[in-house]
Design a protein that fits this description.
- The complex is a heterodimer.
- By secondary structure, chain A is α+β, with helices and mostly antiparallel strands.
- Helix content of chain A is 19%, strand content 27%.
- In chain A, strands 5-7-4-3-8-9-2-1-11-14-13 form an eleven-stranded mixed β-sheet, with helices on one face. In chain A, strands 10-15-12 form a three-stranded antiparallel β-sheet. Chain A has a three-stranded antiparallel β-sheet with strand order 18-22-23, with no helix packed on it.
- Chain B has a domain of 261 residues: Rossmann fold (3-Layer(aba) Sandwich).
- In chain B, 36% of the residues lie in helices and 13% in strands.
- Chain B has twelve helices and eleven strands.
- In chain B, a hairpin with a 2-residue loop joins strand 5 and strand 6.
- The chains are: A alpha+beta, B alpha/beta.
- The interface between A and B is large, with 74 and 60 residues.
- Chain B: It is found in: Endoplasmic reticulum membrane.
- Chain B: This is GPI-anchor transamidase.
- Chain B: It comes from Ailuropoda melanoleuca (Giant panda).
- Chain B: Heteropentamer. Part of the GPI-anchor transamidase complex, consisting of PIGK, PIGT, PIGS, PIGU and GAA1. Interacts with GPAA1. Interacts with PIGT; this interaction, via a disulfide link, stabilizes the expression of GAA1 and PIGK and links them to PIGS.
């Protein structure tokens, strides 16, 4: 106690003289958006995006650590304000360049709901680009998946060499890249992974306002999991800090997409409100956010006497080309005090003014209008009969009126499911063609070393399809990471097309199991053969015949004679 | 003489006073020591809560574990000190009519899953091996912190297990089991590695008392929901969910714990009385012979709550920003712009590379194998038929 005082004084002296207050501009920013899209089938899709950008170059400061002799130079990277410390330390410890992790429950029905903003495969997906300073990528990958399983309460520790692949064409870095050496990329999918509140809780805790203010107030688990589709993801990548792109900032994007089913949650009515979807309303923006907006998609719902009415009426609308089509959005800016002033809360309501004749809307999947068929969608199924042989079919549909576009397909199968690559046939327009050209048509790499297979049926991971789809409407080139969520999420140099990545459904394949009745069959057959063949020969060879005196009768004859004597009849 | 006498009198009174004060001081010190002897000497609390059953109809085991988790969190133990192992997912199970909820009371009164749950070991990760590794600390080095039991010799640990069990074993995941001898040996390893100060072991399975029969390490107190030869029964089914929601013993323990707050002085003897035979149908048992303190001096919050020793100090320390660091940082920023060339984003689908790829020219190799043999045969037949004299017309 007494020694602490001079120690404290010493500490003050070491820290240097007190200067004038040097107010530092904040080096990280948070932008949050919510996009509500009514889907043609009456369901409603809500997509949240929280972007935290941190203007700090972690690698440069790592390098500085070696050159500066100061003891407290590591303080440069230890001050975390909005960017979560757990993820910041991951980036520096494992020398990550990019990290993409998603947890999904359900399947996005592209045919009925249209193309999604972000798509993710069912289960858990993790793909990581490491820096080129990493010497043992596999070891870092294994440790990273274990650490992430602890952070997100998921079984990511089941990712090992048997389900990790290194895709050479389908995945390119989404952030700034200095050359793409694919040996630093690792990709794994766990299709069986369950997503529940325990995955949402740590995800919410990474947000700066953490379910207390702003849009994250709406993230209540009991409503978010009562949906047809739930997907949450974390994306970390380096981005340009300014238009000249001479320095790096780190961007953390946390996205959450849910689709509320009209017939399960909505009881058949197509009217939606924030309260009905999330059981909460928006009360105040997050004080740490520089932007906090809600967008409602109000395109193309003015046909067929059916209009969508949004209340309270929006102050501004925003039009832009999203995923190849021109869309109109109603914008509610939470930072604008006019939006939340009267009632102290914002409960957006979407009401349909439908004509009375279409009562059939509430029963079955009858659409008011045909759903917009997307330009690219895919299906996958298993065919064939018997357990020994089967076929894996992937169907790709291109419904663009006049353009063709190249598609890359990535399929991950476990090692114990043997695919014969020479039987791969590609059928287009009814004509079959075998791929004769060598890579990049087929790039096959073995997945992992054999190990004792588990007793579960293999769930094949979803196929990944990547395609550059030419859009019908040309988009104006815009600084794409400044714009909101639904502007293209992938960097494309040609603004007349947009890049889309689709996932198919996971497949359950029945593998042949050994016939467990074989030991019984073998015993029966062997015993029969031995008894019939060998037994007959043995008898033939060793049986001899003797003549035997017949027996005189014994006890029965003596008893019978006794009775006959009693009767007076002559004995036998 | 008088002065000497008065001096000696003064001395004796002085010495008497001193002796008296020393005596009273000693007495109060002994009193303090006696009190401290009966108070537990732990400084932190841990909880390991395990549910070992799979499948939808074992919903009640998950609800049991989650209700203990909820009580323990409410009484102060943080998530970082709780290792929660659930062998199957009930809340987001497709058969659950209310997703993301696990109820313990019928008519859906109490959702024990809540909004803030962190499960450390999920579904197939709950195995006997992982459980024993958590207890003994022999974990692979890449295991994250939330999956470790980082207790020391001043930790009080609560271990709660539930599932299906029998005489001397507990079933894990429908495919393996842990015996009471393995469990006792694991606790002995923990004692020898000084991984606990005191341990409270609660088990809610059929014939649960058989699991604590073999313990031999000191400072362990054990409770079970039924004796050997008896079955533990479930409490009440819910018609909307369609399964039994809780087991009886844990249901009444939960009701008992709901009345405890972090400051309460209820002791272990009250916990032993929870769920008599009339309510539980089975006879709950307990074992305290290995425990050094008297159960009536052990507070419930010694195991279910969390110890926080807070010392308030009036000293203030002010932290000054280091100007030198900030100056160097600003300089570095300015230097950034000069050094690096503009960076670019990678092209996602390099279409030009894919479409305009020229077919690779194959190198010419001389024919081999079958073709060579065929041509050799043809040439041989020709010359045999027409004679060798035609060679000169060819070469």
């Amino acid at each position: 106690m007494a020694a602490a005082l001079p120690l404290a004084v010493l500490l003050l002296l070491l820290l240097g003289p007190v200067g004038g207050g040097h107010a530092e501009p904040p080096r990280d920013t948070l932008r949050e958006e919510l996009v509500i899209t009514p889907l043609p089938s009456g369901d409603v899709a809500a997509t949240f995006q929280f972007r935290t950008r941190w203007d700090s170059d972690l690698q440069r400061e790592e390098g500085e650590r070696i050159t500066l002799e100061k003891d407290n130079c590591h303080l440069l990277v230890s001050h975390y304000r909005l960017f979560p410390k757990a993820l910041g330390q991951l980036i520096s410890k494992y020398s990550l360049r990019e990290l993409h992790l998603s947890f999904t429950q359900g399947f996005w029905r592209t045919r009925y709901w249209g193309p999604p903003f972000l798509q993710a495969p069912s289960g858990a997906e993790l793909w990581v680009w490491f820096q080129d300073t990493v010497t043992d990528v596999d070891k870092s990958w294994k440790e990273l998946s274990n650490v992430l399983s602890g952070i997100f309460c998921a079984s990511l520790n089941f990712i090992d060499s048997t389900n990790t692949v290194t895709p050479t064409a389908s995945f390119k870095p989404l952030g700034l890249a200095n050359g793409t050496d694919h040996s630093f990329l690792r990709y794994a999918v766990l299709p069986r992974e369950v997503v529940c509140t325990e995955n949402l809780t740590p995800w919410k805790k990474l947000l700066p306002c953490s379910s207390k203010a702003g849009l994250s107030v709406l993230l209540k688990a009991d409503r978010l999991f009562h949906t047809s589709y739930h997907s949450q993801a974390v994306h970390i990548r380096p981005v340009c800090r300014n238009t000249r792109c001479t320095s790096i900032s780190w961007e953390l994007r946390q996205t959450l997409s849910v689709v509320y089913d009209a017939f399960v949650t909505g009881q058949g009515k197509k009217d939606w409100s924030l309260f009905r979807m999330f059981s909460r309303t928006l009360t105040e923006p997050c004080p740490l956010a520089s932007e906090s907006r809600v967008y409602v998609d109000i395109t193309s719902y003015h046909q067929d006497n059916e209009t969508l009415e949004v209340s309270p009426p929006p102050t501004t609308t925003y039009q832009d080309v999203t995923l190849g089509t021109l869309k109109t959005y109603a914008v509610y800016d939470l930072l604008d005090t006019a939006v939340i002033n009267n009632s102290r809360n914002l409960n957006l309501q979407l009401k349909w003014k439908s004509p009375p004749a279409t009562g059939a809307l509430n029963r079955g999947l009858v659409f008011a209008e045909a759903p917009p068929v997307p330009f690219l969608y895919a299906q996958r199924y298993v065919s064939g009969y018997g357990l020994h042989n089967g076929e894996l079919n992937t169907l790709l549909y291109n419904t663009h009126p006049y353009r063709a576009f190249p598609v890359l397909v990535l399929d991950t199968v476990p090692w114990y499911l043997r695919l014969y690559v020479h039987t791969l046939t590609i059928t287009a327009k009814g004509k079959e063609n075998k791929p004769t050209s060598r890579p990049p048509a087929v790039l096959l790499a073995p997945v992992g070393e054999p190990h004792i297979p588990t007793a579960r049926l293999p769930l094949l991971s979803p196929s990944v399809l990547s395609a550059l789809v030419p859009s019908v409407v040309a988009a104006k080139p815009v600084d794409w990471e400044e714009s909101p969520l639904f502007k293209s999420l992938y960097p494309v140099s040609d603004s007349s097309s947009y890049f889309v990545r689709l996932y198919t459904e996971p497949l359950l394949v029945n593998l042949p199991t050994p016939d467990f009745s074989m030991p019984y069959n073998v015993i029966c057959l062997t015993c029969t053969v031995v008894a019939v063949c060998y037994g007959s020969f043995y008898n033939l060879l060793t049986r001899t015949f003797h003549i035997e005196e017949p027996s005189t009768g014994g006890l029965a004859k003596w008893l019978a004679n006794l009775i006959r004597r009693a009767r007076g009849v002559p004995p036998l | 003489m008088v002065a000497a006498f008065s001096f000696s009198k003064g001395l004796t009174t002085l010495s008497g006073l001193l002796l008296l004060s020393f005596g009273s001081l000693a007495a109060s010190q002994i009193e303090d020591q006696a009190e401290q002897f009966f108070r537990s000497g732990h400084t932190n609390n841990w909880a390991v809560l395990v549910c070992t059953s799979r499948f939808w109809f074992n919903y009640r085991h998950v609800a049991n574990t989650l209700s203990v988790y909820r009580s323990v969190k409410r009484l102060g133990i943080p998530d970082s000190h709780i290792v929660l192992m659930l062998a199957d997912d009930m809340a987001c199970n497709p058969r659950n009519p209310k997703p993301a909820t696990v109820f313990s009371h019928k008519n859906m009164e109490l959702n024990v899953y809540g909004d803030d749950v962190e499960v450390d070991y999920r579904s197939y990760e709950v195995t006997v091996e992982n459980f024993l590794r958590v207890l003994t600390g022999r974990i692979p080095p890449s295991t994250p912190r939330s999956k470790r039991l980082l207790s020391d010799d001043r930790s009080n640990i609560l271990i709660y297990m539930t599932g299906h069990g029998g005489n001397g074993f507990l079933k894990f995941q429908d495919s393996e089991e842990i015996t009471n001898i393995e469990l006792a040996d694991a606790f002995e390893q923990m004692w020898q590695k000084r991984r606990y100060n005191e341990l409270l072991f609660i088990i809610d399975t059929c014939q649960g008392a058989s699991m604590y029969e073999r313990f031999y390490s000191p400072n362990i107190m054990a409770l079970a929901s039924s004796q050997v030869g008896e079955d533990s029964l479930s409490h009440q089914p819910d018609p909307a969910i369609g399964v039994h929601l809780m087991d009886r013993y844990t249901f009444y323990v939960l009701e008992f714990l709901e009345e405890i707050n972090p400051a309460s002085q209820t002791n272990m003897n009250d916990l032993f009385q929870v769920c008599p035979r009339s309510l539980c149908v089975s006879t709950p048992g307990h074992r305290t012979d290995l425990f050094q303190r008297d159960p009536k001096n052990v507070l419930i919050t010694d195991f279910f709550g969390s110890v926080r020793k807070v010392e308030i100090t009036t000293e203030t320390i002010s932290l000054q920003p280091d100007l030198e660091i900030m100056e160097s940082r600003d300089k570095k920023d300015w230097m950034d712009e000069e050094l690096m060339e503009p960076l670019q984003y990678a092209e996602q689908l390099p279409v030009a590379q894919i479409i305009h790829q020229k077919p690779k020219l194959k190198d010419w190799h001389p024919p081999g194998g079958f073709i060579l043999g065929l041509w050799a045969l043809i040439i041989m037949v020709f010359f045999k038929t027409y004679g060798i004299k035609h060679m000169k017309f060819i070469f």
